[in-house]
Write a structure and sequence with these properties.
Order of helices and strands: HHEEEEHHEHH
Number of helices: 6
Oligomer: single chain
Helix content: 25-40%
């Protein structure tokens, strides 16, 4: 199922609570750990490779990252999946967040295979994650939360994946 940009922006605004910047009000660390572990296992199965993972990122609204190794992908570019502590949001990037202006650009430059991207998206959707395109997360933040002063140009990425 493809979710429209309008629906994703509506979701981002709905889960944005200015009183809870690093994690949502009813955040359950254990529940996130189980879901994240399932994501790692699914990606390892679908790519037949060991993925690296870091989780429970401190002082950040990002929960963790899973990296599908370059040697397991068609284009030999690693795939990074960032997971937020908010609303089961996920971001998929070729190489690293910000390395390309989203997955479309990475595909156009021959750095991300459509079938590999589909495997990652299917794993995320199967687990109930909302996949938010990097291009949307790079839009200017216009929500109610007061983001850290070190952020020059706040974006939705800063709100749901940034450091506090």
């Amino acid at each position: 199922m493809t979710v429209s940009e309008v629906d994703l922006l509506t979701l981002l605004r709905e889960i944005d609570d200015p009183e809870w910047l690093e994690w949502p009000r009813h955040y359950d660390r254990g529940e996130h750990a189980v879901l994240f572990g399932s994501l790692v296992a699914l990606l390892e199965d679908r790519f037949a490779a060991r993925c690296t993972a870091g989780q429970d990122t401190q002082d950040s609204s990002e929960y963790g990252r899973v990296v599908v190794p370059a040697e397991a992908t068609v284009c030999e570019t690693r795939i990074v999946v960032c997971v937020s502590k908010f609303g089961s949001l996920a971001l998929v990037c070729a190489d690293n967040p910000g390395a390309f202006l989203g997955t479309d650009e990475a595909q156009a430059e021959g750095e991300l295979d459509a079938a590999d991207l589909a495997k990652v998206h299917r794993a995320l959707v199967d687990l109930g994650y909302a996949v938010v395109p990097e291009e949307l997360l790079e839009c200017d933040y216009d929500g109610p939360s007061q983001l850290p002063h070190h952020v020059q140009r706040p974006t939705w990425w800063h709100r749901f994946f940034g450091i506090f």
